[in-house]
Amino acid sequence: MSKNRDQKRKAQLATRAKNESFRFQVEYMRKQKGIDIMGMEQALDAELDAICQNGLTDDLFTLAKIVEGVQQELGFEQEGNLCSLNGSLVPYILGITSVRPDSANHVSGLLATQKPLQVVIAYDNEIRNRVVDWVKAHHEGVKTRLGQPILKLQNMVVEFKRVVKA
After folding, report:
1. Residue 69 CB-density burial (10 A; 0-12 exposed, 13-18 middle, 19+ buried)
2. Overall pTM > 0.85
């Protein structure tokens, strides 16, 4: 019995440490980028609570690394206005979205809705397949769902949409 209790306690402590580290890193990145969230401190805390409760910390870091890697190595930008995480503070701070949320367009509860979290990222028609190939080369779990490439993470599914421009 004590062995099970010790294992559960170690798991709880590891989760708590990971969540505290995530909170620190988000706050550090916010200060480093000079992002002012005046009047939205409670919204940021609520988002961080939802992320930690739903176990999305690792998945958000992975998604941020994907967006940054595609941008640095391939030079491709996502279609910023079509990301399903627009209106959320933490993805903006991590660099996943480029649309700055403010009190008018902030969407509360976006990261606490469902599990696994369904995220849509859109790229131009000409480059989307190259982006998916890059993701396949760097991450396991890339599959297709209804003809769309997706990346399955622990508590998140990222769909890579194609945008056809006229």
Report:
1. middle
2. yes
Q: Which residues of the chain have pLDDT under 70?
A: 1, 104, 106, 109, 112-113, 166
Kindly list the strands in the beta sheet with 142-145, ordered across the sheet, starting from the edge strand earlier in the chain: 117-124, 156-163, 148-152, 142-145
φ, ψ dihedrals at 143, nearest 5°: -135, -175
3-state secondary structure of 132: helix
What is d(CA 96, CA 94) in angstroms, rounded to the nearest whole number? 6
How many helices (H) does the chain have, and how many strands (E)?
5, 4
Find the largest Cα–Cα distance for the chain.
Answer: 65
Q: Are 50 and 8 in contact (CB under 8 A)?
A: no
- The number of angstroms, rounded, from the C-alpha of 13 to the middle of its chain's C-alpha atoms is 23
